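check this one:
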Amino acid sequence: MRLLVPAIAVCLLLSSLAGGIVMALTGPQSDPPSPHAPPPAAAPAAATVTPSATAPSAAKASAPASASATSADGDAAAKHAKRTSCVKNAKAKKLVGAQKTAFIKECAAAP
């Protein structure tokens, strides 16, 4: 038991050193270019556009995506709140086992 802690410490130290050596030998890993990235020639042309002209179009493009995400989050939150209230009602009625499960399913399915 007295040698267990030092043995673990040595193993952790050696594993971290081995990882560092492997990283040093393989060199920096660069990510391949994204297939959706614009070609390099298009980048300077995009830089000449004024920020005020791009801001409204960017806001319009992100609005539908955030609206759908918000409605999905709202639905999930509403379902969670409904189920939580059903669980509390089942607990108040002191239901257990299959009766509790059936009550929660029926309660959560109700509009």
